Amino acid sequence: GQYLLPGLGQYIGFLAGWGEIGITVAALVMAALLTGVNYYGVKETGALQNVIVLTLVGLIVAFLGLGALSGPTIGTFLPPEGWPAVAATIGTVYVTFIGFEVIATSAEEIKNPSRNLPLAMIAAVVTPTLMYIGVMFVSTGTLSIEALARSRIPVADVATEIMGPIGALAMIVGAVLATVSSANASILSAARVNFAMGRDKILINWLNEVHDRFRTPYRAISATGIITLVLIAIGVGIGTLAEVASFMYLVTYALVHIAVIVLRRADPEAYDPSFRIPSVLYPIVPILGFVACIAILLQMSFIVQAIGGVIVIFGILWYFVYARDRALSQSLLGEAIAPEPTAVADGRGQYRVVVPVANPETEQDLLRMAAASAHAHESEVAEVIAVNIIEVPQQTSLAQDITFEEARVELQQELLESARDFADALDVGLRTRAIVGRNAGSAILDVIEEEDADHVLLGWKGTRSRREHVLGSTIDPVIGHAPCDATLVKLGPEGGAEVGEIMVLAGEGPHSPVAARRATEFAKAAREDTSLTLLNVQQPGENEDGASPQKQGRAIIENLVETAGIEGMQYDSRVEIAEDIERTILTAASEYDTICVGATRSGAVSQALFGSLPETIGEQSDRTVVMARGPEESAMSVRDAIVQRLES
To answer: What are φ and ψ of residue 341, in 5° steps?
Structure first.
């Protein structure tokens, strides 16, 4: 980030017409702003990064496409100062490829890392390389090398030739976005690297303290920000900073190549990576990589080699003075969050109910309802899976939050231990899962997929949002995309210990049978002191076939019973006739203890997830309200897919 932010200052200064002092001030302000954003842990920074990347790719593709159509003239390239001068610039140019290694700092959060991590890193090198080639092709074919060398904003000048002033402005805006994105990622990853080194006793643990309120590694972020501000303020040239950054990365990469060979030869029992260099390329690739890194280092200027050498020597001295005698520790994540094994269930259940638990006051009620669903499928060896998720902001590594948040981990373990104890009383098979993730909703969906769950049951406080989320940031993605039955429960004043008299809103919606099945499951589990009523509300007037509203309502109830497969269940039919259906339903609901209603929507939409009527009942009724829907099988729209990707 130290060399990116001065570059950002230059772009902003160019747009504003500022001199060197203005450029430095702009860089300092942006450095302070980005440090503050990461310090406070703004949740939207991850989505913002995705938006910036998509915008940049779009700008580059437009630049390349329009540039190619303009017919660039390509001649033979003959460097004015010879090829050795070109080789001498490799150290500076190399910095433009730096960044792919940052992906490794998020390795603990990547799904299927043995496959996705190598692919992501390879793509992060190959994709920019192809784009760089395209940009060079268009740039050198549009303007002369001499004109490009004289320009402070060469790509913008090329865009001016191709697209006019608008093109130049677009490229400058793109450059600003690129530097903001890269600098932010650098600050964010630096905190994670600090944690990893502190965990292995290479750096002092003081840096890894997590803020009580913001849940971010504020000391590591502050230290990174202060170093960045100092380097900008003392006026170290952007070229020098870039080359020093390249020097340090090349040293790191050279050591990585050696480490690959050492690990292959030592073959430690505890190290068994899924991804390996193909045998036909080993050890040629790591040897050539090491030699290439050293060759580039030797091409760099003396001042860069001197500064880089001082940093390397300081690191060596630090290791021998501080870190050498301190034992390296293994990751604490698995040990910290792994739940104690339970003999209640062995993971071979054929019918699985996932229950996220977070509130000790509602945990038992939700487990009781999940157990009722499981007991209805005893022939399938049913089990309940209790899940608790600790959410961690983007600025904090998952392992870091667990290591320094003993209270949250203890609460998580207490919740899951309580679930195990309660499961014995319910006589239901139970497994527990402790999860650490960025987003609770996404984590629950991952558990559903991994467990191949048949049903997910969530608690709801009973209020809808009028802003970004409909039912809540955790509930919305689960209800909208769960590939299994989804049940949302708003507990009444008495909780869910006694379901009492149950009412099912019997409609013609696609998910009414699911609600009816939930109601029968609860009624069977209660065994006594309960009743089941199927309610249908009709407006006055006969239909086209001349059937009265009463007859229409009873026909709908009978059809629902058959579709839901609950013919053997004892129930009462009730048909109400009224103009105001919603008010009638809410009035009738007050006569019962538990209300079950099916979703009236078939998929996730922007205004409602279960539909307006079910959510209104859930929000306004003071009884226990159960909203249910079947599996979400509809294809995800392009819009929803893009939104989900940007929010992940």
So the answer is: -65, 145
